Amino acid sequence: MEIKVKKAPLKKRKAKPTDESKLGFGKIFTDHFFNVKYKDGKGWYDPVIEPYRSLKLDPTAMCLHYGQEIFEGLKAYRGPKGEIYLFRPQENIKRMNSSAERLCMPPIEDNLFMEAMKKLIILEKDWIPHGAGTSMYIRPTMIATEAALGVHPSTEYLFFIVVGPVGAYYPQGFSPTKMYVSEEYVRAVRGGIGHVKAAGNYAASLYASRIATNMGYTQVLWLDSVEKKYVEEVGTSNIFFLLGEELITPPLAGSILPGVTRNSVIALARHLQTKVVERPISIDEVITASQNGSLKEAFASGTAAVVSPVGQIHFRGKEYLINGGKTGILAEKLYNEILQIQYGLKEDPFGWRVKIAD
Ligand SMILES: *Cc1c(COP(=O)(O)O)cnc(C)c1O
Looking at residue 170, what is its pLDDT? Predict the structure, then answer.
């Protein structure tokens, strides 16, 4: 399928941000976006990159009522010679299609997805910032657009991709986060949709997140929904604990999002000769280990921050410090190694980096 490109007239293009230290996250988008429509019986049709604009939706568009909405998040990185890289984009494409399957939405052909990202990023390449740690965030999204009430899978969809420059996550170096363990509210249940990137998961997480931030914590540490015993994720990231010499992360057992960064951390840690174990880990075990000193480090993993050290955990009214509230050696090592691979600053023994422009 040929992707049509309709360029925005030069005089209608936005001014690019000049101060890269003020980019922040998710506030600035470029001059163009990609979209393609779907209809049962017809498949995907009319793929186009066109000037960025509002979407036109019927008030009964099914995504607005029944939440058939999925998305992805990845980044484009600028290398030292100005070349442009993606990091494991096929993993995001695969995950988008498994999210689609779970929500009875149509899959997107890998080639169309990849071509759309490449073409859009190359068209908008001047928007990719240059500073250390900055990048271009890519947000592929699919929504149900059939105009009809009544709960059933939509017969029509829109898949679109927007991109925008984002700032460095740690402009002043690492700042370990403070976690609030939620025992009352849960993010996802086994058998539900917690293992896919569906919009509803984030709506479900807001209430507990607000409680945590109002109390001065950075994010919620989610427990399993059945026993409220096992650690699942932190905020919208996966979680790792260095217990003694072993790096432990909860297994992908149906309610945890299979993070691309999680998978990369596991592979890289093993490559660096650290033993990695995927097994259930209870909050009691974490707390006991933090008390007896065997919990050396804890950190979250996700595309936005890569690795985000956890310095403190609040559980049942008490505070527990991890590694004295400081960033751990392993977290920092993993962060630096992954970043250098992403930005083309280091050889990539895993074949994760995909160059899309010189
Ligand atoms: C996106 C996401 C992650 C991290 O996934 P990455 O592919 O590493 O960015 C982890 N948990 C949740 C709930 C997420 O939405």
Answer: 81
139 CA → ligand 1 middle, Å? 13
Domain with CATH 3.30.470.10 in the chain: 4-166
Question: What is the CA(144)–ligand 1 centre distance, in A?
Answer: 22
CA distances from 208 to 185, 302, 316 (A): 6, 20, 15
Say if residue 12's pLDDT is above 90.
yes
The stretch 147-161 carries a mean pLDDT of 98
Task: List every span in the chain annotated with CATH 3.20.10.10.
Answer: 177-342
Mutation probe of ligand 1 site: the residue of 233, 236, 239, 308 with most atoms within 8 A of C-beta: 236
**pLDDT of the residue at 171:** 75
Q: Specify the CATH number of the domain 177-342.
A: 3.20.10.10
Please check whether the domain covering 4-166 is classified as CATH 3.40.50.300: no
Q: Report the alpha-carbon distance of residue 303 to residue 86 in Å, rounded.
A: 12
pLDDT tens column, 34-92: 999 999 999 999 999 999 999 999 999 999 999 999 999 999 999 999 999 999 999 99
For residue 72, the CA-to-ligand 1 centroid distance in Å is 9
Ligand 1 center to 311 CA (angstroms): 20
Which residue has the least CA distance to atom 10 on ligand 1?
237
pLDDT for 109 equals 97
Q: Identify the residue whose C-alpha is closest to ligand 1 atom 13.
A: 236
Token look-up 């899309």 returns 356
Cα(49) to ligand 1 centroid in Å equals: 27
What pLDDT is attached to residue 230? 98
Ligand 1 atom closest to the CA of 205, numbered from 1: 13
pLDDT value of residue 172: 75
Residues with CB under 6 A from ligand 1: 73, 197, 233, 236-238, 257, 259-262, 301-303
Helix (H) or strand (E) holding 51: strand 43-51
Average pLDDT, the chain: 97
Euclidean distance between CA atoms 119 and 6, whole angstroms? 12
> How far apart (Å, rounded) are the C-alpha atoms in residues 19 and 167?
10
DSSP 25-49: SSS---SEEEEEEEETTTEEEEEEE
